[in-house]
Amino acid sequence: MFEKIKVSKYLAYLFLIIVSAIWAIPVLFGIVTSFRSQTEVVNEGFRLLPVNWIVENYVNILENTSTAPIMQWLWNSIFIATMHTLLVVVVISITGYGYSRMKFKGRDLLFFTLLGISFFPNVVNLIPSYKIIDILGWVNTPWAMIVPGLAGMGNIFLVRQFMKGIPMELDESARVDGASDFKIFSRIILPLIRPVLIVCGLFSFTGSWNDFLWPVIVYTDVNKMPVTAGLLLLQDVYGNYRMIGQLMGSAILAIIPTLLLFFFAQKYFVSAINLNSGIKG
Amino acid sequence: MKKLLMVMLTLVAVFLAACGGNDENTIQFWTPLTGDDGAYMDQLVEDYNATEPEIEVKHIITSDMYTKMYTVLNSGNGIPDLSIIHADRVPSFVKQDLLEPVTEIMEAQPELNADNYIEEAWSAGEVDGTQYTIPLDIHGSAMYYNQDLLEKYDVEHWLDDNVVTFDEMLSLQGQLEEGDYVLNDALLSWVLLAQIQNLGGDIQENGEPAVNTDAMRESIEAVKELNDAGLMTPYGEDGYLMFQSGNVLFSTDGTWSSTGHAQVEDLNFGVTNIYAFEPDTFHNRSSAHLFAMLSNEERSEEKEQGIADFLEFVRENSIEWAEAGQIVASQDVIESPEYENYMQSFFTSTQEQEDSLYIYTYEHYPYVQEAMDNYVADLVHGEMDINTGLEEMQKFVEDKVAEGSLDMENTELLDEDELEEELSEE
Amino acid sequence: MKEHGKFAPLFFVGPHIILFIVFILIPSIYGIYASFTNWNLVGSPEWVGLDNYKTILANSDSTFYSQFFNGMKNTLIFVGLSVPLMIVIPLMIAVALEHKEVKFTSLFQTLIYIPGLVSISAAALIWSLIFNKQLGVVNNMFGSEQVWTATQPYAWITIIIITVWAGIGGNMIIYRAGINGVSKDLYESAEIDGAGPIRKFWNVTLPSIKFPLIYTMVMTTAGAFNVFAQPLMMTDGGPRQSTTVLMMYIRDLAFSHGESIAGVASAMAVMLGLVLLVISAIQYYIMNKNATT
């Protein structure tokens, strides 16, 4: 028995080291490339360390504050992604409760119908979606990025299922004591679903941060854009002109905040998930 | 829950405090000029605003401008006062009634006339005798050469007449060191569009798209011959980067790439015409950035005057724009001695050179270009039979035209006022 | 015992339904309506009934017909190749991470999650440099002479590699959460029965994480059907349009340089949505059924 665990432990390590190396090397390569000159990239090709470390790529990116105010973009993104994430957490926990713990006619049919509709590719819906944002007066405001995503079904699906794993007896005994639905939700269920909310929050934050198709349409003001859409302005050009170092540099700048969040959130969702066993069939 | 609410409220407060107001009394000016191009245009706009005009210009850069134009035109809200569009959009925009003629602009500033601009750029904005745009620049195909490699293979004399021919390039067959190539396949469809002109062909016949033509076939076969002789960078390889790494004699990309190539320190390069069959017949497929006004009833006369003033300022001062690598359209600028410092001045150095710049103004040109972008790489690199390819391309364009023209009929049924009403209602 | 009031469900699911109607349902209905029209995005759509569907489904002479079937075929290839990998690889990683004696799990997890944060244009450039014939490592290391993005099956392989590389982080986290939630008692009783690690995985872990599997499979499939950035950036649909997925054709029709052909594009999008819906329903049905028996 002891031997078996040892062998499987080494196998697990071997597998993890190989996989994370394969996953990390291209990222490292990207980071290192952001410190190389165009001359070096085209002449030396793929190599892990630059011949000469340079910071000019970053200087160029940061200097151009009129057409590319990166710091402003980062701040816009932080605002948008944070607001979006907080609202998502509120909406999915309330809605998830409705679809898992309340009994009403046609509940599951309604849920799966909405889920099905949300699967339709939204590419040609761009015009009507824009019109709605326009009618609401949200063009060039952060609400255009914060609110529409709240309608998504994916996270609700996850939360609903997680809540189903929490024994119904908890609700029933509380109800015997005269608790209302709101009380059951806020006092009993909400604390228990924290782990799944943190996971959904992370997904929402990352998704909102990385969305670039929609913000390009709803923002005209370069100072109000989120960073991913803003960088697209740059990357269009860096890509077309193959300014490889600057393209990498801008991509690296854009991932730093999400990366920090991930480090921070990771501690929470690993420890929190240990508290209970919510996800079940 | 309470903590959540607090965080949200604080964020909203901080954010709203950070946002400034928006002045309505400005000319909203949209361009698709991302990156450095945008920065040069920003500088121009800033210089103009520094002259303290009555109405200032606000430059807004959009990475997906045409999609966004559709969205604002459709909703009738937030239509820009002035924008820069590409030459190949003009015919279909005019046909859909999306552009306002620049007649009044020209009256407000008499110097904004045909004589003061490169002819090809000016006429790209003319449809059925009405002028719809004022040009900013011409940009298009250009061929960069690697001076060091020309010397290495002892073929500098190819450039003597400023035109490299197919035969000249073919003469290097079998003589290249491994890893070296004579030319790359960047912007291949533009190169072919130039060859079609060199052969006296066209992409339309009596208004009908003509892709499956002898001129097209001959052009593709000729370029394929270069590929088959092992002179062209292989299919799927990044020929642009291979030129920068010094392995390719000629790169057929765009006038704007000179800034990119200049970033590579030891690349000793220059610019010339796209290769041709004969030294005395050569063309460079071009496009142009054009100032245009999207249809919008709400544009006031004061604003039109302001637009005219701005365009006149650009006409006089757009030497800044040469920094972006583009061929400036204003005659004043290209005749100035400063302009000679820019590599692209090559293309306006003589009347013959100026005549080589060719802009396709055929209404369905964008579909033709799209078909070529989808197919020609496969045809030239021998991945697909040329006859089959040409038939499919012809079909592709015809089918797209058929779908598109149904829409046109629909639009033409409405007269102008009705259309405008409809646009503003929706 | 107090049952919840008549309007209580409305309070819990109502707000989201309003959001759903405004931001998903109305645009989707408009999109479906557009599929029965000719529309250039600017003017008003002109009703043409089933014409667009007849063109893409039945008129074998039409370019749109061949685009639709070629795009659908390539989309299905992409789904078939990528979805199993996007399930199996993160599942294996999660199992390894949840091994009770493995340390540094946060480090491993972070390294594997980061690629999902890199913007697609930068990621595509990184990988095209890696696959580049002259400059790259792949050909130097393995001595192959392929131009990867221009030859099949390598073109698909590059697309799948970048997709899996950038896309498994989320699934990995869901599986970890799922495996972590499996009761320790189940493993202990399996051990008492003499089960080895592999049998424990098949008999205990997999049945216990049924929902995470269903969820990730349905969501990953939906994502794979909507793919366009990876093939666009890596191969531009080539060689010979063998990696042009349907979403690329749809976007070209609606937002390319020429006048927009949004009606046909909408019809293709609706068909894509229907196929996706049927496949998701089948997945859900089969997996739900298998696990209960």
TrEMBL record, chain A:
For this protein, the record's CDD domains field holds: TM_PBP2
Keyword Membrane applies: yes
User: What PROSITE patterns would the database entry show?
Assistant: ABC_TM1 (PS50928)
Compartment(s) where it occurs, according to its Swiss-Prot or TrEMBL record: Cell membrane
Q: How does it sit in the membrane?
A: Multi-pass membrane protein
Q: Name one Pfam family in it.
A: BPD_transp_1
Its primary localisation, in coarse terms, equals: membrane
**Example of a GO cellular component annotation carried by this entry:** plasma membrane
UniProt keyword terms in alphabetical order: Cell membrane, Membrane, Transmembrane, Transmembrane helix, Transport
Organism encoding this protein:
Gracilibacillus thailandensis
Task: Please report the name of this protein according to its UniProt entry.
Answer: ABC transporter permease subunit
The record's comment on protein family reads: Belongs to the binding-protein-dependent transport system permease family.
**Xref: InterPro entries:** MetI-like, MetI-like_sf
Q: Where is the ABC transmembrane type-1 domain?
A: 74-265
What is any one GO biological process for this UniProt entry? transmembrane transport
- The UniProt transmembrane annotation reads 12-32, 73-97, 109-130, 142-163, 184-205, 243-265
Superkingdom in the source lineage: Bacteria
